[in-house]
């Protein structure tokens, strides 16, 4: 099987208007057999999106329509490809209860989902860490150093794995090294292998999967997968399932990075 478990849609306010069908057609063209659409869920109640464009999550009023359209799509393409309805849920420190509330409401409609950290809390503020290199620089200034940003990021990912978000909590951890997105411009001197190892152990003991995300390979300031190959290799040896994610925000990004992720190529032999 060839699976892409992390795909955005026209419901993404910072994505493109490419139709759902265009993503599916591109995936079929590339030989994918399984897809999950994982649009950014609406941000939790009471959370003010701190990105300059305030467009991190989808509009709550569109959620019902999102699931209706995916349901139609699943049926339309049933003979060609397996399609799952999912969401990429933000883990935001301090908004666990509101996130659980959203999951309790929409969880029954989810076939699959991802839990990701995009926002870091610092004092009474939250910062979106993957918005832009300029914005990342602002985060470094707020936290005091690159090391402090990395420390906060990995701690927040750990909290996300351990958080109680109720029965519909996603069981796949999104791009677990997203903090590397601008690493060519802001290299971190400290080695975080110990923290990353701890995360792998938490993922393993929770019975979760990892989103093995190809988007970072295409980002000029990152140039590696999330997580990088050595970490993915270790996860695989530990028996943690790696689920490829293109993180496509436009149809032509389906499959991005796949050919340079040999660890995944064995999955082609699975039926
Ligand atoms: Zn996005
Ligand atoms: Zn994400």
Describe the fold and architecture:
This protein has 8 helices and 9 strands. By secondary structure, the protein is an alpha/beta fold. It has one domain: TIM Barrel (Alpha-Beta Barrel). It has a 7-stranded parallel β-sheet with strand order 1-2-3-4-7-8-9. Strands 5-6 form a two-stranded antiparallel ribbon. Helix 5 runs parallel beside helix 6. The N and C termini lie close together (5 Å). 42% of the residues are buried. It binds zinc ion (ZN) (2 copies).
In short:
The chain has 271 residues and is α/β, with parallel strands linked by helices. The protein has helices at residues 20-29, 63-76, 96-106, 133-143, 146-162, 193-206, 215-218, 229-237, and strands at residues 3-7, 34-40, 82-90, 112-116, 119-122, 125-128, 172-173, 209-213, 242-245. β1, α1 (20-29) and β2 form a beta-alpha-beta unit.
């Amino acid at each position: 099987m060839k699976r892409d478990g992390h795909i955005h849609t026209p419901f993404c306010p910072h994505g493109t208007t490419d139709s759902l069908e265009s993503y599916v057609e591109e995936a079929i063209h590339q030989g994918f057999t399984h897809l999950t659409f994982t649009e950014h869920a609406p941000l939790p109640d009471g959370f003010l999106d701190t990105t300059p464009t305030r467009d991190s999550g989808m509009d709550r009023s569109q959620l019902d329509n999102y699931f209706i359209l995916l349901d139609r799509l699943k049926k339309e393409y049933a003979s060609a490809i397996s399609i799952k309805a999912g969401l990429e849920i933000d883990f935001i420190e301090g908004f666990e209860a509101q996130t659980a509330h959203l999951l309790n409401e929409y969880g029954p409609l989810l076939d699959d989902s991802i839990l990701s950290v995009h926002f870091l809390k610092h004092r009474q503020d939250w910062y979106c860490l993957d918005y832009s290199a300029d914005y990342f620089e602002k985060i470094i200034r707020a936290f005091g150093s690159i090391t402090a940003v990395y420390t906060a990021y990995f701690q927040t990912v750990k909290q996300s794995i351990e958080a109680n978000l109720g029965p519909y909590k996603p069981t796949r951890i999104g791009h677990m090294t997203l903090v590397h997105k601008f690493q060519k411009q802001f290299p971190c001197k400290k080695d975080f292998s110990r923290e990353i190892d701890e995360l792998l152990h938490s993922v393993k003991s929770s019975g979760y999967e990892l989103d093995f995300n190809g988007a970072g390979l295409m980002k000029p300031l990152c140039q590696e997968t999330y997580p990088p190959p050595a970490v993915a290799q270790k996860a695989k040896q530990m028996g943690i399932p790696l689920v490829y994610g293109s993180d496509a925000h436009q149809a032509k990004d389906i499959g991005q990075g796949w050919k340079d992720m040999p660890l995944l190529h064995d999955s082609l032999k699975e039926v």
